[in-house]
Amino acid sequence: EREKKEAAEKRSSDVTPKPVACHGAYWQYEMDGHWHPFSPEGNDQMFQAYKVYISDAQNGRTASIVAGGVERIVDFQLMTQMHASTKTVRQIRIVAGVPQQWVSAPAALLTQSDHLASLYVKVLDSRLVEQVTQVLRSTGHAWDKSVPCSHMRGATIKSIHRIENFPLWHRYKARLAAMREDHTRYNISVNPVDLDLDGREGTMSSSQRVLDCGDSLAWDVDEKILLHGTSWDNANSIVMHGFDHRTCTRGMYGDGAYFAGAACKSHQYTCSKHSGKACACKSERTLIIARVALGDAYHTSFTRHGDRRAPKRRQASGNHDSVVVNPGPITGHHNPIQLHQEFVIFGQEQAYPSFIVQYVP
């Protein structure tokens, strides 16, 4: 009889629907060396019980989970479940659905509050620090001693923090899923955007995998690692709530959130005294290294003052996902030649702040 029940349980697991995420996380149980998702009903109960355990480990250690008419006793301290009738014990685990290099425990992620310090994790990895140093010193026109961008050749990192914002991360991933649905609906093929068009060392291209936090960039929505210069206060707001394109009202290529592939370009927006200039002031600056989903990008050679979204597609329904400006002639700009490559998005969840870098030029 026991063998029959276990066989039925295994057959049931084979047809179990995809796990329903609770803010992006979900529960699994181990059987025959493989991990299987809890049913949606069981998953919801597990999260309710786990939150009780987090707040009161002594009294919330065990819980009764009833799904599909079967009762199991869960022990969150041992991370096991026991079938109430057969007494079969299996291992359980929670899958947070976050990048591999994140170090925050699932319990901490699930209970994150508005306390900023809990979202910042200091980076000590020498390989990553070296790569970010290269991004600061060798992207864009930093090599050209005749221009202000050369101030970045001597940039020194003061600190790097990885941002582990669980709700923001999963809102970003949901946005990527929505973009995929849009592309499928309208039969859109995404053409990847080339990086380092305003540089000569290929540093941003070679940095993509190093700076992905162990979560591979999604090629199907042309996910890129890009840069955003700002103030420390603004960075804190972005860490908490994400990039808000609504705060931009005078964008040259639309009122969106702007990113660059050259640190010397982002550097122009880090000084309160010289906004728009790559100055040499020795004050501490803030650079955000972000994941940005460019998707179906629109390449423009004209300024686009006042645009609140990317242009409509010409050969398909809907709008493009972003605006890309490459170096070269530009119409409508006070400078007829665009020097740096720029990227503009118009969706609040279309970028995620992966790292906050404090540096001095």
From TrEMBL:
One GO location term (cellular component): nucleus
Gene Ontology MF annotations: NAD+ poly-ADP-ribosyltransferase activity; NAD+-protein mono-ADP-ribosyltransferase activity
Gene3D superfamilies to which the protein is assigned, alphabetical: 3.30.720.50, 3.90.228.10
Positions of the UniProt region annotated as Disordered: 303-331
Entry EC no(s): 2.4.2.-
Keyword Repeat found: no
PARP catalytic domain boundaries: 105-361
UniProt keyword annotation of Glycosyltransferase present: yes
Domain WWE: 13-94
Compartment annotation: Nucleus
Family designation: Belongs to the ARTD/PARP family.
Name the UniProt record assigns to this protein: Poly [ADP-ribose] polymerase
Source organism of this protein record: Symbiodinium pilosum
